[in-house]
Amino acid sequence: MAGMPDINMCSHGVEVWIEMKSPREPRRSTTPLFGSNHPVSQDQLNWFLRHTRAGGRGYLLISTNAQWLLVPGACLEAINTLSLEAIVAIAVWRSRKPVHEWAGLRAQLFQKGPHV
């Protein structure tokens, strides 16, 4: 299906979809992270819109050259125009590289209750 995320996981009855992106961090803090740097496609944005409207759980997992960021699928509408600083502000999980917080990422992905 067009736009379907890279990863599908399920643990203890909680299903999660994850799209992976690996942009390089721009030099200027006001420059959009995804400007021409592996942007989220319109098909991917549409997939997340349909999925979250139906009550599904999905995330964008961003691996820059310096850090990891997890952004809920419901927050992706303007993702390609946001600066790194703005994306950090909406991220629900963040870790500098190398990652030592994998348990925190797993807990965020599979938490019970609201996921936005």
Task: Describe the overall structure.
There is one protein chain. With 116 residues, the protein is α+β, with helices and mostly antiparallel strands. It has one domain: Trna Endonuclease, Chain: A, domain 1. Helices cover 23% and strands 25% of the residues. The chain has helices at 42-53, 84-90, 102-109; strands at 7-11, 14-21, 58-63, 67-72, 93-96. A hairpin with a 2-residue loop joins strand 1 (7-11) and strand 2. The chain is globular.
Features of the shown structure:
alpha+beta; Trna Endonuclease, Chain: A, domain 1; 3 helices; 5 strands; five-stranded mixed sheet; globular
Structural class of the secondary elements? alpha+beta
List the helices and strands in order: EEHEEHEH
- Please summarize the sheet with the most strands: 5 strands, mixed
- CATH class placement: Alpha Beta
The separation of the N and C termini measures 24 Å
Helix fraction, binned, reads: 10-25%
Summarize the structure.
With 116 residues, the protein is an alpha+beta fold.
Helix and strand arrangement:
Blueprint: E1 7-11, E2 14-21, H1 42-53, E3 58-63, E4 67-72, H2 84-90, E5 93-96, H3 102-109
Parallel strand pairs: 2-3
Antiparallel strand pairs: 1-2, 3-4, 4-5
